[in-house]
Amino acid sequence: MVLVYQPSGERVQQTDKKLHDQKALAEMYLLRLTDNLVTSTRSTFGYVSQGLGGLKPWILYEPRHKNAPDPFVRAMSMEPCSLKAPISACQAETIKTTPFVKYCVRIASQGLS
Predict the structure, then answer these.
(1) What pLDDT, on the 0 to 100 scale, is given for residue 47?
(2) Which of 18, 32, 41, 104 counts the highest number of beta carbons within 10 A?
(3) Is the pTM above the cut of 0.85?
């Protein structure tokens, strides 16, 4: 068994704090070394780690509207998904960037893709 120290365990995001960002990056690199990854549907650490490590993670779903779906579902690929189209510096029209966005399985299953 291998135990991993969680360097960024401050429990609160600390935007633009260099030490916190360094700890977060270190944690994502540690997570990519796992054989199996279980992540939540909106985990940035999980999405980055699965991409870096080439992992197909297990997604842990949260109950919605008092209905509990299957608790774990295997992701379709190691590619991270996005909840919305990114805003670029050039402020490109969303319609031009949307075709390149791969929606999350959870979002697509709700008919939002």
Answers:
(1) 81
(2) 104
(3) no
